[in-house]
Amino acid sequence: MSKIVFLQKETLGEDVDLEKFNNFEDISFYEHVTQDQVINYAKDAEIVITNKNLFNKEVIDSCPHLKLIALTATGANNVDLEYAKEKGIVVENVSGYSTDAVAQLTMTMALSLVERLSHYDGYVKSGTYSESGAFSYFGNPFHTLSSLRWGIVGLGAIGRKVASIASAFGAEVVYTSFSGVDRKEEYERVSFEKLCRECDVISIHSPLTDKTHHLFDEEVFKMMKSSAILINVGRGPIVEEKALVKALNNEEIYGAGLDVYEKEPLEKSSGLLQLTYPERAILTPHVGWGSVEARQKCADEVYENVRLFIEGTLRNVVND
């Protein structure tokens, strides 16, 4: 039976049922594994289950028995895929488990910012509404989503889900893509520049590549509408955070919703925590993928990856 180590078990949450993993005869679980502990825990393993631990040349060379790296995630940026392949190590991920959850957070952030919800919530809770003598108040004008243009960056499964929901609200949806794949879609494909110049809401659902790294920089923010809202639930480094902070503080764009950051966890010194208009930003700790249902589905899919690998069947290979 293969020796298996489950690193970073805590990243799936305490409420996820991992009992079926005990069907494997030789498995060890570790709650939190820092990078400097990886080699010590994984050096004798044939199968490693991990989320964000880095498996570069040094780590891979220190794990001579390793045959499978099973990721509890979709992204595989933390693994040197080519070197793993060269060493005969299979890398498998899971995908599709968080589509609904990420789309849900995207819409929650966008609707909250479009509706200026933080402003009106604060107006009531501060007691100002009670003292106003008026039954209604419109100090921060907002618009219906059906009057707005929504731009999608990356029309994969999540982007397509968001597009369908935004369309259901009546928004005009357009998209741009950097994948190089050209296929017929029900939404209009536009250039990145056109999307940035014309869209009221822009949501990012693209993977991090050389083409998308710091895609949203100072120059791009200057071309966006001053009323625009940016949502990033893709990858943190797609947005240059210092440029975003500057754009928000200078009112070059209206607001932003971020679930991912250039460095995670977000540093206390980040300008995102010291914004001039903090109510215009919604910041969440990389939770978009993590509804209870999504995390359980992720764990179940990882289990199947490992079980079938042991039986001789490959699935969800990302370095073939």
Topology:
Elements: E1 4-6, E2 27-29, H1 38-42, E3 47-50, H2 57-61, E4 68-71, H3 81-86, E5 90-92, H4 99-114, H5 117-125, H6 128-132, E6 149-153, H7 157-168, E7 172-176, E8 188-189, H8 192-198, E9 201-204, H9 218-223, E10 229-232, H10 241-249, E11 255-258, E12 281-283, H11 292-311
For the biggest sheet, the summary is: 7 strands, parallel
Radius of gyration, in angstroms, nearest whole number:
22 Å
Overall geometric form: elongated
Gap between N and C termini, in Å? 24 Å
Number of helices: 11
Strand sequence of the main sheet, in spatial order? 8-7-6-9-10-11-12
What fraction of the residues are assigned to beta strands by DSSP?
5-15%
Point out poorly predicted stretches.
Answer: none
Order of helices and strands: EEHEHEHEHHHEHEEHEHEHEEH
Query: What's the total count of β strands?
Result: 12
Helicity range: 25-40%
Mean pLDDT across every amino acid position = 97
Coarse structural class: alpha/beta
Describe this structure in words.
It is built from eleven helices and twelve strands. It has helices spanning 38-42, 57-61, 81-86, 99-114, 117-125, 128-132, 157-168, 192-198, 218-223, 241-249, 292-311; strands at 4-6, 27-29, 47-50, 68-71, 90-92, 149-153, 172-176, 188-189, 201-204, 229-232, 255-258, 281-283. The strands form two sheets. A seven-stranded parallel beta sheet has the order 8-7-6-9-10-11-12, sandwiched between helices. The chain has a five-stranded parallel beta sheet with strand order 2-1-3-4-5. The protein is elongated, with a radius of gyration of 22 Å. The model has no long low-confidence stretch (mean pLDDT 97).
